Amino acid sequence: MVTFRVVTIFPAIIRAYVGESILKRAIAADLIDVTVHDLRDYATDKHKTVDDYPYGGGAGMVMKPDPFFRVIEEQWPDRQSRRVVLLSPKGRTFTQDRALSFSRETRQTILLCGRYEAIDERVREALVDDEVSIGDYVLTGGELPALVIIDAVARLVPGVLGDSRSSAEDSFSCGLLDYPHYTRPEIFRGMTVPPVLLSGHHSEIERWRRIQSLRHTLERRPELLERLEMSQEDRKILKELKEEST
Ligand code: ADE
Question: What is the mean pLDDT of residues 131-146?
Fold first, then answer.
């Protein structure tokens, strides 16, 4: 089972999100397991302090090392069976590929959520196996990134989504952006559904979808095409799409 252990000073944020919808069901069905650990419970002074002023001066506070060491050493003393992941804008960027590798992880995934300006570097040095960013922007803490990872990983665990094809066909899963989708009614406020989708002709529908995926990727994320394994047919379609746009 994929197991997430979240260390945070805001446990309610994590519990609120994993307590709803698909994640709630996945947890109830024992497909994933999420536990939340309040970092303040591992502070030793009577005020439960988890941050302090930075050595060398400067703006903002730094998260103290001691509570992180205590929670990890008490809860998950065996290094072999844990993978400690620090959420931070300095980490390697999270992608669909990385979500897939998290979904196959057999160790417990421990997500450390930072707050304030920074975390004492010795936490990184001695405890952290992997540092992950969810994108090139700075948030107020690691809780949303932790939830982003749990959410993206959970939906790849077999059984979590109703239909396993729905994650296989996602944007990025095959290296391309998703194609457009339509549902009833056939005409909505004068806007129609592409006739091929109503034709019942499966190979034509597949081809139309492939063209749309290639078109959207070319227009919005052309760099994704450089890494794509393309068929002859894909190359032909792309050539036509490029000619169309010039
Ligand atoms: N903490 C603050 N910003 C972050 C980001 N972009 N990714 C991961 N953790 C963060």
Answer: 97
